[in-house]
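Tip: read the tokens left to right.
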């Protein structure tokens, strides 16, 4: 099922023709696919085409990452790698349809007909029901399903590639345009590593959604990486190219339903209000200019500030737990009053 062929449409005319021939052959699970070219395609072109095919259609779970090119006389053919037999693919496709129908029925019953709310409920469904498959990282040969939509739908666990493909498949099934995005991301003090997430269309506008980080950073429900802009996602995601710009912030949780703090005065204000009303949970995002030094330093400073402000307001004691996904600027406070 392809709602749009985003990556296909960014290929050259020659590459598009090869894409169409290879994709048609893959859908038939042809062992040999003859290509209408007179010269042997170079590796860069073929990798470009192969990547576009696999990104455009997440339902191609049965396609491996390898292939062979063979020239015999004037005839050039590609031999794809299939990870399942035709009979098994047919059986799995029936189960995918059944599982997707059940899942989306639950999502749509909660969300109604509004596309933004449907995505929100799907994002929350992933949070509540799926887990990140740490053992599969770097082990695609051992855990291949974790790199496809099969991991989330049937094993309830996957790595980022599997989650983004399943998310795209389900979003498209709800008639919401969504593509997979490949780049790098950095968290918990680590160097940047390869990562995959999604870009979604709502009312003609584009937004980033990283459902994988929505899962792995969950503290109850959170919307940190749902429908956010380039400016927000670039705090910890980078090196993604050839995708639509995401300049809109109207659906971001921080900045709409939760505050973005741009100064120490704003920070003092939100803490004083929360402490006066004895709120137990407080969350906000620090603007980039407020994110100075390491995360540990920021957490320590906010913890001390919260305790000092409470001492000025009350004779009681307070315990403060501050959490912050590395590099995100997001701060969550759990407060206990005694």
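Filled-in amino acids:
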């Amino acid at each position: 099922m392809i709602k749009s062929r985003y990556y296909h449409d960014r290929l050259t005319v020659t590459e598009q023709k090869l894409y169409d021939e290879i994709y048609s052959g893959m859908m038939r699970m042809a062992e040999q696919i003859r290509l209408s070219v007179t010269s042997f395609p170079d590796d860069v072109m073929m990798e470009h085409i192969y990547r576009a095919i696999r990104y455009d259609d997440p339902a191609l779970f049965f396609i491996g990452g390898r292939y062979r090119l063979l020239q015999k006389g004037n005839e050039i053919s590609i031999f794809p790698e299939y990870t399942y037999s035709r009979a098994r693919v047919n059986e799995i496709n029936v189960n995918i349809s059944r599982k997707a129908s059940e899942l989306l029925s639950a999502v749509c019953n909660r969300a109604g007909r509004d596309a933004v709310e449907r995505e929100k409920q799907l994002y929350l469904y992933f949070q509540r029901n799926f887990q990140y498959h740490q053992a599969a990282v770097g082990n695609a040969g051992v855990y291949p399903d974790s790199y496809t939509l099969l991991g989330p739908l049937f094993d309830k666990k996957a790595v980022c590639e599997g989650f983004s493909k399943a998310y795209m498949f389900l979003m498209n099934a709800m008639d919401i345009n969504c593509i997979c995005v490949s780049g790098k991301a950095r968290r918990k003090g680590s160097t940047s590593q390869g990562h995959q997430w999604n870009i979604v269309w709502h009312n003609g506008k584009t937004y980033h959604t990283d459902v994988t980080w929505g899962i792995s950073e969950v503290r109850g429900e959170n919307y940190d990486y749902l429908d956010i802009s380039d400016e927000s996602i670039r705090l910890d995601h980078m090196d993604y190219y050839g995708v639509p710009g995401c300049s809109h912030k109207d659906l971001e949780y921080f900045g709409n339903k939760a505050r973005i703090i741009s100064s120490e005065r704003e920070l003092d204000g939100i803490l004083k209000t929360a402490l006066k009303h004895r709120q137990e949970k407080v969350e906000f995002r620090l603007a980039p200019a407020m994110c100075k030094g390491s995360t540990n330093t920021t957490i320590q400073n906010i913890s001390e500030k919260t305790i000092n402000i409470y001492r000025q307001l009350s004779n009681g004691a307070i315990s403060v737990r501050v959490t912050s996904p590395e590099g995100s600027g997001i701060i969550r406070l759990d407060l206990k009053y005694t």
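Residues 17 and 36 are 8 Å apart (CA to CA). The chain is about 40% helix and 20% strand.
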